[in-house]
Amino acid sequence: MRSEGGGFAIWITGLPASGKSTLTRALVEQLRERGVEPDVLESDRLRAEQPAPAYDAEGRDAFYRAMADEGERRVSEGRLVIFDATANRRRYRQYARDRIARFVEVFLDCPLQVCMERDPKGIYERAVSDSENTVPGLGDEYEPPLHAELVVGANARAEDGARRVIDLLDARRYLR
After folding, report:
1. Which secondary structure element, helix H or strand E, spans residue 81, and what is its range?
2. How far is the C-alpha of 67 from the C-alpha of 50, rounded, in Å?
3. Which of 1, 34, 92, 99 fits as disulfide partner to 64, beta carbons 3.0 to 4.6 Å?
4. 2 within domain boundaries
5. What CATH number does residue 38 fall under?
6. Rounded distance, CA 126 to CA 94, Å?
7. In a domain, 112, yes or no
8. Which domain holds residue 122?
9. Residues with Cβ within 8 Å of residue 82, at least 6 apart in sequence
10. d(Cα 100, Cα 78) in Å, to the nearest integer?
11. Structural domain tally of the chain?
12. Residue 116 contacts residue 169 (beta carbons within 8 Å)
């Protein structure tokens, strides 16, 4: 089933600490300036609301499927949904794309070393010493999008990246 109607979704993906949340905040601010109130589905916040979600392959499969299903539900209600989530496998993002007709994937192309230097949550530091680590980019693979609608580089200011997203949405006539 593909959701139709006035809603649409933006999936902001990239390695942990690539700037997804920073870009999301700038995008939300710029959308609000235009009178648009988006729904943000942020993976860390959603994981905190679930009972002990696992970071193994099975746990991630279930988590991202549920996240995409929730996004699809909101889009079908005419909402703008922003997914702020690594979603390290292409199939997670593709699942959402297959279900949401008006879908934009934004890739934050940030080298692993830069992400490790930023590391505001300390996840890379902890992962380096953990033989069982599943952090995308280190212990688990991150599959970058093959055909993202927009790529934002590591050196881009969040406000500029957000403006580029809005320009794309305007060009597609998603914003009215």
Report:
1. strand 80-84
2. 11
3. 92
4. no
5. 3.40.50.300
6. 30
7. yes
8. 8-171
9. 9, 10, 12, 24, 27, 28, 38, 39, 40, 41
10. 11
11. 1
12. no
